[in-house]
Amino acid sequence: MTAPLAGIRVVEIASFVAVPAAGALLADLGAEVIKVEMPQGEIMRHAHPRTSGFKSDLKETPHFHMDNRGKRSLALDISVDAAHAALLQVIDGADIVLTNMLPERLERYGLDAKTLLARKPELIFAALNGYGSAGAESNSPAFDYTAYWARTGFMDAMREPDAAPTFLRPGVGDHAAALALTTGVLAALRVRDQGGEGQEIGVNLMHMGFYVQGNDASPAMTTEQEVPRHDRKRPRNPLWNHYETSDGRWLFLVMIESERYWRTFCEAIERMDLIADDRNEGPVGRYRNSEALTAAIAETLASRSLEAWEQVFAAHRIIWAPVRTLLEATRDPQAEAIGAFARIEHEDGEMRTVAPPIRMSGHEMPGTRPAPALGADSDPILREAGLDSDAIARALRPKP
């Protein structure tokens, strides 16, 4: 079958994670994605594993390949007039522009939605930034650490009462935002294909932070109360809690409907005495007796190793999960079975990476293509845009 986005050309003017990840998803769907970078390459291209604390001499950047797979590379310094003009000519042949440049920078270079849509009305212009296109902070630089995590209350909510705020791991909010940006682009393509008009798509990290934690944000706003933090020593539901095992590992019980699983769980851990205790009658009783009941469950679960509990729980239909390390999780047979990982071939060998999170029965999305070498496609892309050899030389000439 023809790829869903076959024949669609995307120009991506972006760096770091969120917008490049959206570009990668569009490439997975069959679009031709032209990644525009400064001549020295964007910073993530050079963020080798050792810069993040891994003991590795790998000269490739696995996460850069993951978020830039299957693209073409155009290296331009758009502060040079000839390069800027060349970029506009490339955009003239595109269906979509993706960017995370701040609004004031877009206007400075004539790459804002108003200017580009006036030049090409059928263009889809998709922008992502930290705080949106309105308000006093629309031009404030941001990462998902700030706009998505700290500013939205997410960082504060994800901790127990006496613990310090929780640090965000790289790219978490960015990848959520990438999915939102991709959704908007696909919807705009459908509208354009029906009526011929392009439009502007906007996604920002702050809004994404509120959306992802919406099940907390909505009641907090309605009640005008702070979110009650989880306390693992006194949970509202002791069967929805994490517990330590004898080997210092952890397991996570997630039996939200506690009444449905109460007897089965007690049978599994061989604590039928907990059922006999009238204080534990029903969800309300277990809530009122939470501290004592949680301590009893904790004592029992601390008597065996995580591996031993895995064998026990495998024989009982309850909802739980071992708390894996990330490296352990990447070796999970179930993750392999669902195709969560891909292998990318590059000049130094092979890398395992995360595969695209979408499956289509009519179009394969293996995620096995590498990111392009810096500037590898500059000359052919500019020729396709109609530039002659002299114009290409001026566009690619280093800034004096």
Which term fits the overall shape?
A: elongated
Number of strands: 11
In CATH terms, the superfamily of the largest domain is Crotonobetainyl-coa:carnitine coa-transferase, domain 1
Low-pLDDT stretches are none
Chart the SSEs and their pairings.
Blueprint: E1 9-13, H1 18-28, E2 32-37, H2 62-68, E3 72-75, H3 81-92, E4 96-99, H4 103-108, H5 113-119, E5 124-129, H6 144-150, H7 154-157, H8 172-195, E6 199-204, H9 205-212, H10 214-223, E7 240-244, E8 250-254, H11 258-268, H12 273-276, H13 282-288, H14 290-301, H15 306-313, E9 320-322, H16 326-329, H17 333-337, E10 341-346, E11 349-354, H18 378-384, H19 389-396
Parallel strand pairs: 1-2, 1-4, 2-3, 4-5, 5-6
Antiparallel strand pairs: 7-8, 8-9, 10-11
Helix pairs in contact: 1-8, 3-19, 6-9, 8-9
